[in-house]
Design goal:
alpha/beta; 15 helices; 17-stranded parallel β-sheet; Leucine-rich repeat, LRR (right-handed beta-alpha superhelix); 21% strand
Length: 431
């Protein structure tokens, strides 16, 4: 950015200083010329700031904080997307933004967790994202406000390098009474947790946790699940991700007395896919054997579980409380297995929503089975390459209760079939 452009930017910001409350800036080059300190100086009333410059470090983007002349009293929501963010650099910014309630920082080094744990800079912080690779919750999307001071939502990366467990666990424990949403992707760093499990000895003690996704390295999964303890009665969403210990997360699942939605992503077993599938079968059967009053699960989603097979689908039909079924990704399920599954689920008369994504085994025969589901209200299909107009029309004509149809990346349907769907379905969407 040249000097003239910089002048235009700062002049525009100065003219808008009294009314500008939200600003999003994205820089492809590290030579941004506009520092965070100058932005906060020129925008004294800004409440939400998104600042992205991945080719630069956070330290190089701060600028002269003395320019601000004091603390920024309006900023409550800050997204920083940089190449590297150290704890020292972040703390320098946070000291000038004491009113922050939501903070998302990409490119974090582990020292960032130390700054958040100490909590000296932003006592009102309720949402924190540690290098999240997805959109984290907004302030207006949080659950009930009456939980007292402390973090209410904590996010880590979706895959890749997670947060060091020796820094993340203490942060979870510190805010266990207030946390409602946790996405915990943990790595073990260099510690030998089998011989030194002190981090996991004391139960985390969550009191208000509602949504839990965990993604630990295999050596610490059992220890982490054990540290959850038994006080998980408020959890409604549970998602074990890349788990290699299906029996361990099944034990946790059975304790979730308020469970509504469960997502199992990339589950496996060290003993192979057949063994993992048999463990998933046992999970379904064990849950189905619970007293009816304890079966609260409404949604079950399998996301890219290569071990998923027809036996698991058969066991799922014993889950009589399901209203939503989501299957995504290549697995070992067959067309015949899916046909049997949907026909049997129709007899349960509880399933109202089916979502299918990237499954070659789904063809017109499967759609014909789905067409028999007399209570189905919503069907979503994504990246399906083996379905045709015939199957789609069968569903549209047969399922009189169908109100919502979403097709994304399904390029095998003709324009005529899509027009027919649009004319027959109240809420139709083609992406």
């Amino acid at each position: 950015m040249n000097a003239n452009m910089h002048m235009l930017y700062t002049s525009a910001l100065w003219q808008l200083q009294n009314t500008l409350t939200c600003l999003e800036l994205f820089f492809a080059s590290c030579n941004t010329e506009i520092s965070l300190s100058s932005l906060l100086f020129y925008c004294p009333n800004i409440e939400k700031l998104v600042f992205s410059a991945r080719s630069a470090t956070l330290a190089s983007l701060i600028g002269d904080l003395e320019l601000m002349g004091g603390s920024h009293r309006a900023l409550v929501d800050l997204d920083l997307d940089t190449g590297i963010a150290t704890g020292e650099a972040l703390e320098a910014i946070l000291k000038r933004c004491p009113k922050l309630r939501r903070l998302s920082v990409f490119g974090c080094e582990p020292s960032v967790l130390d700054v958040i744990h100490e909590g000296r800079c932003c006592p009102d912080l309720v949402i924190f994202g540690y290098s999240p690779s997805f959109e984290i919750v907004q302030l207006n999307e949080l659950e009930d406000e009456s939980v007292g001071p402390g973090l209410r939502a904590l996010y880590t990366p979706n895959g890749g390098t997670g947060a060091p467990a020796d820094k993340l666990l203490p942060l979870l424990k510190k805010h266990a009474k207030t946390l409602q949403r946790v996405y915990a992707n943990m790595e073990e760093e260099s510690q030998d947790y089998d011989n030194n499990p002190s981090l996991f000895e004391e139960p985390l003690g969550f009191e208000r946790l509602m949504k839990l996704t965990y993604w630990p390295e295999e050596h610490i999964e059992t220890l982490f699940l054990r540290s959850l303890g038994s006080s998980l009665g408020s959890v409604t969403f549970f998602s074990p991700t890349c788990s290699s210990n299906i029996p361990a997360f099944t034990d946790v699942m059975l304790k979730l007395t308020s469970l509504q939605d469960m997502e199992i992503a990339r589950a496996s077993s060290e003993e192979g896919e057949d063994h993992a599938a048999s463990q998933l079968v046992q999970m379904c059967k064990t849950y189905a054997a619970l007293p009816e009053s304890q079966q609260t699960m409404r949604m079950l989603r399998f996301w890219y579980c290569s071990c998923l097979n027809d036996d698991v689908l058969s066991a799922m039909t014993e889950l009589k409380t399901l209203t939503t079924i989501e299957l995504a990704g290549e697995s070992r399920v067959t067309t015949q297995g899916l046909v049997r599954f949907f026909k049997r689920m129709n007899k349960a008369a509880t399933v109202k929503k089916v979502c299918l994504q990237d499954i070659d085994a789904v063809d017109d025969c499967v759609l014909n089975a789905i067409a028999s589901m007399s209570h189905l209200e919503t069907l979503e299909m994504d990246d399906m390459s083996t379905v045709t107009d015939i199957g789609l029309q069968d569903v549209i004509d047969s399922v009189k209760t169908l109100r919502n149809l979403k097709l994304e990346g399904c390029d095998t349907f003709s324009e005529e079939a899509l027009l027919y769907a649009r004319s027959k379905i109240k809420h139709f969407e083609k992406c």
